Amino acid sequence: MRAVGKSILVALLLVPAGGLAQEPTQQVAWARDLNATLARARTENRPILIAINALDNEGGNNFMAHTGYREPSLVAATRPLACLIANPNDHRRRGDTCPRYGATDCKTHRDVLTYALRRWSNQGDIISPQHALLAPDGTLLWRQEYVIQPNALQAQCEKAVVRTAPKLALELAAQTRAAATKTLMSGTDPKAYLKLGDPLAPAVLLLLWEEDEDAKWLDALKQAPPSAFGLVRLYIEEDDAFLAVAKAIDAKKGAWWQKRLKGRPAKAPPPHDAKLRKAFGALKRGDKSGLAALLAALDHPVDGPEVRAALAELAGMDHGPAPDGWKEHFSR
User: Fold this and answer.
1) In a shared domain, residues 68 and 199
2) Are 206 and 231 in contact (CB under 8 A)?
3) What is the pTM of this model?
């Protein structure tokens, strides 16, 4: 791990100050073949971006297709992901490459729309544009309807990589955070950098630790959000100091739940879901056993509109994962 990390960082420091040395990618690399892409994401442990861009003559859809998906920083952030785009139309003039979306073909983007409708439409209609990020196994991580600015979508993609694919997050940080790394090496406070909210900040600090093993990087990492736990766990066998960092980050999960519930009690599940009701009660009281009780109650898939609404509110989500995906969501 350490030798690999150092070689990544050395390569990063050779990048010009302007940023990442990139091949001239014109837009997000939309994949071909829906089923093969989903299978590859699971095998290679890559999060999945699904972009619904179904209205060719609408302003918001055209902004995303012609501007948003071509923003260089977003293109770079999506490289570790399996990227799929959804559209019902056939844009081909010749050959099988879609002229609207580049690398993909029109059959694939029609198949992706069918997939999206099956997952997120009740009556055959769906808002476009919208975007969703899935874990490698297909569990929903995040979904947002309507136009989103490229930098906001970039941040969500980076969060998904950190959360589900920490090794890829280290590579992405090495490729895209040259300026931040040089600033930190020049004396910028790493804790202040973390507070800026850069999703890849924990990965940057880990790469810097690999370079000089300075304790200040690990001290700052103790302030990282719970989503960084997977990154730190990669290093636990490298140095005992990472045990303290991992414990500090993992302990924040309980504080996160208490903050989530404070002043806004979640809806209680229906009476027949006794285990869930008991878990919700413990969480509201700030009982440390509440999260464990919730995970135990989710050993089996749960469904039904009342249960979904209660779990979604507890998670702070508008939409939840599939019925069998709640346990994985709350385990993070």
Assistant:
1) no
2) yes
3) 0.74
